[in-house]
Specification:
By secondary structure, this protein is an alpha+beta fold. It contains one helix and six strands; from the N terminus they run βββββαβ. The strands form two sheets. The protein has a four-stranded mixed beta sheet with strand order 5-2-1-6, with helices on one face. A two-stranded antiparallel sheet has the order 3-4. It is flat, with a radius of gyration of 19 Å. 8% of the residues are buried.
């Protein structure tokens, strides 16, 4: 069983920073999704892709994976770029 550990980032629809910075452990899919012949929906019998565990720190996520014997890889998040803008720029 393999997993990836990544840090949650703020999405475009989010104005605040609540729950940003939490570390998430997500299992890698074991099999590819296939189309259902009747409805055409994509699905698989792999239920581990529905499990997401959150941790306050990277060390806690790594410790959990080591304790449970889960092979993991850490995916670094993109750096946050601040775009400083003055209020006066709105009137130029």
């Amino acid at each position: 069983m393999a997993a990836r550990i990544y840090q949650r980032m703020k999405n475009a629809m989010q104005s605040g920073r609540h729950r940003v910075g939490l570390w998430t452990l997500e299992f890698e899919p074991r099999e590819a999704q296939r189309a259902d012949p009747l409805m055409g929906w994509a699905g698989s019998s792999d239920t581990s892709r529905q499990v997401r565990l959150t941790f306050p720190t990277l060390a806690a996520a790594k410790a959990y994976a080591d304790r449970q014997g889960i092979a993991y890889r850490v995916v670094p998040g993109p750096e946050r770029k601040l775009r400083l803008q003055a209020y006066a720029d709105n009137f130029r």
